[in-house]
Each structure stands twice: as structure tokens, then as C-alpha cells.
Write a structure and sequence with these properties.
With 191 residues, the protein is an alpha+beta fold. The chain has one domain: HIT-like (HIT family, subunit A). 34% of the residues lie in helices and 20% in strands. A seven-stranded antiparallel beta sheet has the order 2-1-6-7-5-4-3. Strand 3 and strand 4 form a beta hairpin. Helix 4 packs across helix 6.
């Protein structure tokens, strides 16, 4: 489906996301993910693409205190300037700007990676509501510098007037502490 959608000239971006539980914005009672194709690139993706063109250093994520765990194909880490407690990213080790080119093996490892990550968070924070979204680029121009990834946001804090008014988010928890707690949960529960 993503290949078909991305080949249409009037589609500039495909958003793949999940809202889990009512508090995270789900509109249906059964578990589901969604795909929405739109004729423009969202501002947040444009900003990421611009930033990735200026600088990207994967080694920093692999060895840093924000690393949660990794498999041969994927790295899981808490983001540098997370906007929510327990926010984490899953990023492939093989460079690509879209998920279209994942091999069958990479798809299996990605599913295993996501399952392990979500299980750890459920154990740590008692199964809270969450959202996740794939950040991809359909443009061949970004392939050299943009790296697709999945961002997971648990609904552990409420955005109030300041956040909604300014677009500036206050996270009172250090991402390094979140990574440490998640590593402990994974180790202690043999995930």
C-alpha cells in the first residue's frame, strides 16, 4: 500500500500512526493503526529533513546513555529533547529514508523490537495510553541524509496552556533516566 501511495504524484507524505487508548485519541474501541496520505509534507518532517541534512551522527546514539537496547538491525533510544516522559525512538542501523525498502528479515526484527519496547513500557508504567508514528520521507532527494524512524509517545503528562500556546514542551524527566529505567525493566524481566 505504501509503495502504491508513494507513486502517486499528488501524494507528498504518508502518515502511519497508532493511538492506543481513549486518552491517546483513539476513536475506535478495537486495537488498530492508521494510514493517511496527504498532498504536503508536514512541518515537523520538513524540520527533521533540514536538520538531518546539516548533521547526523548515528554513533552518538549507539554508545550514549540514552540507549535502551539494540538488535543487529535497529537501535532503540530516548530522544535528546523528548517532549514527554518515556518517549523513545526506534531507528534502523541501515540508512534509508523510507520503510518501503525493508527486507523481510528487517520487518521481522522491527516487529520484535517494537514488541519488546512496548512490553517494557507497559511493565514500567502500568500500560498507559500511547501514540506512535513513523517519520519517513518519500522524496528521493532526501535519501542521502534523512533517516526514517518510529517515535513512541506515552500519554504520561498533560499539555496545558504553555505547551499549547507556545509549541514548547516541558518534560520534567531526563531522557537518560528514562533509558536507564527501561534497560532495568528489560534486564529484570528477560524481555
Amino acid at each position: 500500500m505504501l509503495i502504491d501511495l508513494s507513486s502517486k504524484p499528488y501524494i507528498r507524505y504518508v502518515s502511519i500512526f497508532k493511538n492506543f487508548k481513549k486518552e491517546a485519541g483513539t476513536s475506535l474501541t478495537h486495537d488498530h493503526s492508521q494510514i493517511v496520505a496527504i498532498p504536503f509534507v508536514p512541518r515537523i518532517i520538513e524540520v527533521e529533513i533540514d536538520a538531518s541534512q546539516k548533521f547526523y551522527n548515528k554513533k552518538n546514539e549507539e554508545k550514549g546513555s540514552r540507549l535502551i537496547f539494540q538488535y543487529d538491525c535497529f537501535i532503540v533510544f530516548t530522544s535528546y529533547a523528548s517532549i514527554q516522559p518515556m518517549e523513545f525512538w526506534i531507528i534502523p542501523k541501515r540508512h534509508d529514508n523510507t520503510i518501503i525498502n525493508l527486507t523481510k528479515y528487517e520487518k521481522r526484527v522491527f516487529a520484535k523490537t517494537l514488541k519488546k519496547s512496548l512490553a517494557a513500557l507497559r511493565l514500567l508504567v502500568n500500560d498507559p495510553a500511547y501514540n506512535y508514528g513513523f517519520h519517513i520521507s518519500l522524496s528521493k532527494k532526501t535519501n542521502e541524509h534523512y533517516h526514517w524512524h518510529l517515535e513512541v509517545f506515552y500519554k504520561l503528562s498533560i499539555w496545558a496552556g504553555f505547551e499549547k500556546n507556545t509549541g514548547v514542551y516541558i518534560n520534567t524527566v531526563l531522557p537518560e533516566r528514562d533509558a536507564l529505567e527501561l534497560r532495568k525493566i528489560i534486564k529484570n524481566n528477560s524481555l
